[in-house]
Amino acid sequence: MLSKFQNHISKNLSFLKGKKLLLAVSGGVDSMVLVHLLHQLQFDISVAHCNFNLRGDESNGDEGFVKSFCKKSGIGFFVINFETKEYADLHKLSIQVSARQLRYNWFNELLEKEGFDFLLTAHHLDDSIETFLINFTRGTGLDGLTGIPQQNDKIVRPLLIFTREEIENYAKENQIGWREDSSNASDKYLRNKLRHKVIPVLKELNPGFSGSFLQTLENLQQSESMVDDASRIVYRKVVEDIDNQKKINLSELMVLPNYQAYLYQWLKPFGFTAWNDIYDLVEAQSGKQVFSEHYRLLKDRNTLILTEKKEIDKEVYAVYEEAENSKIPLKISVCDKGDITFGNKDCIFADKDTLKFPLEFRKWEEGDYFYPYGITGKKKLSKYFKDEKFSLIEKENTWLLCSENQVVWVVGKRADRRFSVNEKTQTIIKIELK
Amino acid sequence: MLSKFQNHISKNLSFLKGKKLLLAVSGGVDSMVLVHLLHQLQFDISVAHCNFNLRGDESNGDEGFVKSFCKKSGIGFFVINFETKEYADLHKLSIQVSARQLRYNWFNELLEKEGFDFLLTAHHLDDSIETFLINFTRGTGLDGLTGIPQQNDKIVRPLLIFTREEIENYAKENQIGWREDSSNASDKYLRNKLRHKVIPVLKELNPGFSGSFLQTLENLQQSESMVDDASRIVYRKVVEDIDNQKKINLSELMVLPNYQAYLYQWLKPFGFTAWNDIYDLVEAQSGKQVFSEHYRLLKDRNTLILTEKKEIDKEVYAVYEEAENSKIPLKISVCDKGDITFGNKDCIFADKDTLKFPLEFRKWEEGDYFYPYGITGKKKLSKYFKDEKFSLIEKENTWLLCSENQVVWVVGKRADRRFSVNEKTQTIIKIELK
């Protein structure tokens, strides 16, 4: 008769059959049960063991234990030794985070190099309960309360619906040996407190707690899928995705009484955390902005514009007539009168004698003005932007081509008439945006 | 300087100003702080105190304490004595549930009789944390993790964002007296375990736990509002609400990979709990059904039909020519040839001599047949229903009018030709559906 473990794996994880599987095995009870089960069910498995060298002989004992088990059972065995402490010091990381980075970097390498299809880990239901409680203790949202996923991408966790107790009982009943894997636990202090102080009380109050927790997770996962649906539906209506910008139409969004929920949902993946500032931004005047580590959210009239955070380029690049400059997206050539075309904003024609090379290629600055081709008089750039209803982002992205600091071209937008071709022009210069 | 309590109330609960408020006051620290605060801020308050007579002198001591405080402060005071134990025995309820029923029944009576606008209770943040953990321990969904609402309908909880500790400190600093309200706690055993064993560990692991819990609640409430949005949007697309029936179009619903989440969301309010049965029903054959206490969900071709659970009426009602019968929705009268109309399904005309009064009015049964007006031969009712594509619900709701157990009328649908008016008819009977 098959155990409930074998049943579960045969029924729900049949997609692993015939695949090349790498098992992360510390030597603890969870991973030893996992390797036994899959070996028994004749899955195509190999074992990967990390020796973090954090507990001297004990660490080496774990390694030897897993190695000899694999040898005896004819299971492929990969092992690596990490100088975890040194790595942590070097990168100024905690031991936990270091061990995690080292481990997963190596697993990914192995997956790729050896052509494994999946990495299997022995996470179980109590890990999920602990993760739930850790997130809850720290403060979280729905996404922090939906448990460890049974699969994300190439990582699969076949034991996730079983409790630690069930796994230990199975190991005892089937005489599966293991070693206590004290170094394996991340967030050790937190987890131990929850494991020994909190979870036993919950199980005392509800002896069926593990089962009802599984149901709770399922309910919350369903709710999360509906949150995703709502998020997607409303996003399609009020957000315009163009040119690495996302433009959130506030007049449409704010019809919803819970518009903040949508902003939270959309902006969280971009690393924003200052939610009150963002909610204030909605009512703020144009030009106000809020930053995350890599992104910026800008209020611009009745929109919020999300873009990557970029330093404004303050450099002035010299543009020579002859040489192509890979930093500057302009192409300069001499041409005939017959080559002149109109209506292409990415190209201007200038009278060479009016230009003084090298020209300067730089960002717009407050105070710049020009003599727009086609109208009389001069105009401040700021006035021009306003008349053309440029967004703040568009203004920031505007480059000027100047000659002796006089604007020749608001690049891609408008030429200056002082440099334009006329009947006296002897040499025509064509300047194109590449 | 105003305290943070007064600030909070002035800022966020200004809608209570000028309203007639009833405060539920046990005499414990929470409710005594609440009454002090609102009295100080000159709200229009009265106090309601329940004496549950569960702790003898102690209960009477509480009553006396609250009463004399109100007298001294010039606050209106209502009191009631309950024989809680007797009520619990009589109704076979727990003491907790009994106390709750008695209390809220009385509060509602007072609100109505005395014209109060709101009932205020002194629930605080720790109550919310405990409620979260109780639901979590028992197993729940998102709705069980969004905390106690600050307001639902006429009940308002002004202290909900403050911790028990903050409230106790305020009472001490302001020399507010109180009595330990041991009977006030519902779910006492559970709450005490969580209060003394679990929550202190969470606060040890995160000293800012109360604040992050408030943020968690807000995040979860926002998610819940998005779940509601998704639910409503999809409901409008796939559910037809007609005649006390909700018809869920499965072919449209099941395009969604997470259709179960929607079924759960829509059906939960109708008391369903057997979710796996419901998810199986989706794939089951027509006629299968799942019941909650008051509702039934029926698979009918590619729909699920939700209706109230009704016993099928097996009675046969006698229909007399003369008397109006209030139980029977038919009106019978004699009429002239000139009165005959066509095309009204709610009305037939019959030859009186073919009928034998009293007629019988009853539900359709397996085996019934009739001679449909307008075609030759006879037809089984079951065949007729099938041809007309009647749903199971429509079949169940179909009444027959019979004469000597021969079908005269499939009521509201089709007449039988054996009883129809012809040139030999002497008296015409008009039978109308009221």
From TrEMBL, chains A, B:
Domain Lysidine-tRNA(Ile) synthetase C-terminal: 359-431
SUPFAM superfamilies listed in its UniProt record: Adenine nucleotide alpha hydrolases-like, PheT/TilS domain
Molecular-function GO terms, alphabetical: ATP binding; tRNA(Ile)-lysidine synthase activity
Keywords, in A-Z order: ATP-binding, Cytoplasm, Ligase, Nucleotide-binding, tRNA processing
One Pfam family here: TilS_C
Record GO cellular component, one term: cytoplasm
Residues holding ATP: S26, G27, G28, V29, D30, S31
Localisation per UniProt entry: Cytoplasm
Chief site of localization: cytoplasm
Entries under SMART domains matching the protein: TilS_C
Free-text note regarding domains: The N-terminal region contains the highly conserved SGGXDS motif, predicted to be a P-loop motif involved in ATP binding.
Function in brief: Ligates lysine onto the cytidine present at position 34 of the AUA codon-specific tRNA(Ile) that contains the anticodon CAU, in an ATP-dependent manner. Cytidine is converted to lysidine, thus changing the amino acid specificity of the tRNA from methionine to isoleucine.
NCBIfam families tied to this protein: lysidine_TilS_N
Similarity comment text for this entry: Belongs to the tRNA(Ile)-lysidine synthase family.
HAMAP family listed in its UniProt record: tRNA_Ile_lys_synt
Record protein name field: tRNA(Ile)-lysidine synthase
Species lineage: Bacteria, Pseudomonadati, Bacteroidota, Flavobacteriia, Flavobacteriales
Gene: tilS
